## 1
Amino acid sequence: MGRGRAKAKQVKVARQLKYNSGGTDLDRLKNELGVAESAEDDSYDALTDKYADYADDYGADEPRDGTSGR
């Protein structure tokens, strides 16, 4: 006996996790997981500058799906 109350508690917690998960504190989670802050934050512009040399070698003439177009 007594299993009904424990099961009801588990169902309640499961429903809260499923439907009310919008309030996650991502910074706190990052700290708990031990994820280090990235000293280098590459934005899109930084990446385009970094790989600009490859754009000359592999221009827009190449198909994007990796095939040779033949």
## 2
Amino acid sequence: MQRSRGRVVPAVVAALCVVAALPAQAWAAGEPSPYTFEPSATTLRGAVTTTDAGELKPGGTYRDSIKPGGKLYYRVELDAKSNAYVSATAVPELGTKVGYADELKVTLQDRDGSSCSYNTARFSSAEYARPIGTYAHRTMEKDSTSCQSADRYYVLIERTSAATSSSEPWELEIRHLTEPGVKAGGATAAPESWPSSSPATPGGEARDRRGGTSFYGATALEQGEWRDRITPGETLFYKVPVDWGQQLFASADLGSTAGDGYVSSALTMALFNPARGFVDSASDISYDGEPKSSALDPLPPVAYENRFDSSEDVNGMRFAGWYYLRVSLSPQVKDEFGAKPLGLSLRLNVKGAAKSAPAYAGAPGDFQVTDDDMNAAENGLSTPAAAKSDTMRLVAAAGIGAGTVLVLGLGVWTLVARRRAVVDPGAESGTGVGPGHDSGAPTQYGPPAAW
């Protein structure tokens, strides 16, 4: 019996080692993580005409897809008080071909077809598949008559692709948010100047934190230096709470590696506001195996009146809330330097004390920074309520692990029991009965006594 147990136990240990090694093997494979769509998103097919357009509800997230040259219509019902935002994130399949001018365009228009606003997102010089996105909005403005009434409006999402680009559809994630209006007496002009000097590098030791794979799963960060690793072809998302009156500074460093290759536009970093509207991007990093760094240009402090500026980087800093950083590494890095992940460092400064919010006429919703948000940033949670869900994920993981061990253990016990039924339990002492004979003793089940 000792001989049988000696064969079985190492087998169990080896099996458990295989189970424990699975996550490490998946990471070592060097495959980029795909975009994680919001689980609660509703599938809504865009229409080819406004007449058939389905409705996007405030606070809702939706999924669709768009082909090259596609035009998709949706409708929104807006009041005469709230600001409205509709964002679209396009997610090309990893490894598909995209071109410099391939773009996603989002337009919000009234029933006469007049544009309230539109924005485009392009791949530009970083010609590789990764999530891109932007938004359109209806902004309430004093003395303006365009798009100010309570009415039905239409959202138009368009895709432009070069003939040489891949023809596969791009997956879409669409989000519609509304922001309450403000009481009379607020500012109506954008600031003309703001502090533009970059602060010193944040002090303290760099901390490790793994980025998320989408806006929904973005990992929360607070001020400081953060370390991660990024695989060629991968896109990681992070988010930072920025309150009224605060200024965000961000930079990204790509660590060194062995090799003498060269990749232009290897690393891209872009900033999006709480409504998932594009704000600004850092200069793309070209990579030759030596450490490289890039930073966002200085942005204005968050202020309600920024929305009245014509430049995208200023009017994008129009409300408090989560600001998202999207960091992507070119898949060409794999060809030049191998599939292994490279070191990534993010340095974040949130400068200035938080100020009072504008006199909103209703609940600010996503356009605020709460105590839960600050806790999430401190602890690296993916959502303000993720403390509970993260705990449940840990419990689930532990349960899966325990279940695996239990199944393996039961298999071992069954094997041992069968061996006891077949092999003479007293063979070594000469007291047992041969195979096929009943000893008259009850069969023992469960783990061996020595366990």
## 3
Amino acid sequence: MLRTGLLLLLTFGHTLRHYETAEKHQIETMPGGVAVLDFDSDGWEDLFFANGAPQPSLRKQVPGDCNRLYRNMRNGTFADVTATSGLCGTGYDIGAAVGDFDNDGLADLFVAGVRESVLYRNWGGGKFAPVEIPKVEGWAIGGGWFDYDGDGDLDLFIVRYVHWDPAKEPFCGDATQGLRTYCHPQFYEGISNLLFRNDGGRFVDVSTASGIGRAIGKGMAVAFGDVDGDGRLDAFVTNDTVPSFLFRNRGDGTFEEIGDAAGVALNDDGRALSSMGADFRDIDNDGRDDLFVTALHNETFPYYRNAGRGLFRDETYPSKIGKATMAFSGWSCGAYDFDNDGWKDLFVAGGDVQTNTEKFSSRASKQTNLILHNNGDGTFAPLPLGTAAWHRGAAFADFNHDGAVDVVVTRLGEAPELHWGVLKTGRHWLGLRLQGTKSNRDGAGALVTIGRQTNRVTTAVGYASASSRVVHFGLDRLAVAPRITIQWPSGAKQELMQVRADQTLIVREP
């Protein structure tokens, strides 16, 4: 019988501040992302949390409103090192994206906010400083790093939500009862996403030229994968109550939006969902990148299985995910092999959009997290995880080097929670930390194959969050991996033979 792992709440000394008001400003329900980054390059994953500030007036912050940076102390605890990091921030921040944009071996950080978004360069020694990039207008939720043009450095994809003005917040709810709720996205005008090309550390806004900026949506998350197996990374963007986008990389600097044709813009009922977080990985071990998406209650969480030739099949109900998630609302998510049996499981950070759901329905606004255990036969079994809360961001890493994937989750108005070894079983495992030489230094986009399993290097996972770039494989009873194949973004192919399990291996591009 599977059991969920230990829960740690005492490590983090801050709460996720979202400043809920009687006016129910839309931004209040949207924080906050969490990012995994080894900022001091000691081989142990550290953590960054985006935090709100008094809004909507954007008046001066009060003590405790900072974003937070925590150093992994290698003993199961984390130390708050925000004060000297330069990452406190000045506005209402929502999410973060991690990538080494200048290929110096240090993890840099993009922080997305309601009125201001900032790219911070990691200078080493725990110090970060803003870097000039094209101005990000409007409300950014998060983003992700990928080398879309194959030039060896990481480009920045920025997800934007809607046009929002605190002075024009509509009233939603029941005025006769004095009951106010957060408004449906239909009351807000959509906005395009942004793409900034990295030209050796100088960023150029190519949103319009690339085609990314021509699609107007209500973006929540971005995830990268290879739709058609052509070796180029494509971008999937979840949209809130309007069709989601799938941008196919043409390889000439432009993208074609094929969400509808590919079968991932809508669900099988032809409905646009309140799509939230996403992960873009091979979930069924057939060598093709699939999509898992979270949404709200009564919508279920879509599982789009890659059928090849650029087409996906909605397997939400055949996989039993539909029945298991009908009553849940989900935010961040991730596809990871939590029990190391060789099959990726699915994680969901649970919590309703509304914080007063109980006043107008029989549902609870606070929910547990959810594990959907991969049975290896195309179906998944639900396992609740943790206590009920308004969970939002989630990120994944092996923080204590024991071979079991850990999960850190943010909670509105509460401290983050850290789940050690979600489904720890003692089976064999292998972690790979790739270092590109001809490719980008992070190895972002590299495809790794062990047996029937494939996994991809990416930090863009879930909602408003970033996870470890270490590629994790569960090996079950296999103490030695006979062959590991790595397809690098540069096109180079590498094979490793007879690799011992139960270690995190650093692999340099040949």
## 4
Amino acid sequence: MIQADAPTILPLELKDVSLQAGQHRLIKDVSCTLDAKDVTIIIGPNGAGKSLLLRLCHGLLTPSAGAIHWHGANGRDPSLYQAMVFQRPVMLRRSVRANIDFALSLRKVPRRLRHNLIEEALHRAGLNRFAKTPARVLSFGEQQRLALARSWALRPQILFLDEPTASIDPAATHVIEEVIMAMRKEGTKIVMCTHDLGQARRLADEVIFLHRGRILEKSGAAEFFAGPKNDLAQAFLRGELLWWHRRELTPP
């Protein structure tokens, strides 16, 4: 079982990371460091590579070039200290409670400790009344809350979120954002991609702007939304379509 007070595996450093599929480079020479402090929000147009970047960080994809290093791991397996919630999470064919229990069993959490962890996760995500409900009959917003509850129970040091509120109504989005920020308050580093600029403004401490597989800007949220330095980031904030920008820019 992972101890909540275990030394952090962060910061996470990506150095000249690229991802290639056939003849196409999808992620291009990305270098950045993610520390344990801020909520990092990744934004950019569709096809920018946001989801791919999250999967590289989480270890689901292996870079074609470059290196990804967890500076605080010190020989530990980083996968045991992180979690990821996908845009369309997979629900097991079992109850809400059993979905969380299964995630804990995979991390080898002793059975005697699981009950309290499950109860707390259900309470935090507002899912107590659905504990015995089959997970697959929940609404999409409720399934996302269950995915967050499964992650919460694991006490991850870092949580990757791939557009967790896409296609969800404002009320459900509000609840999910509250859960995310409660996890952050308890010490989980949040790295999240979103297409919703309003959400980015509400949640971000730090913004990464990604376009055509490259990081074109990384700065504090207040600084970024006051006026990005990169011209494509400026156009993106103005609501312009960037699909026609074919030139490949390097960060300023």
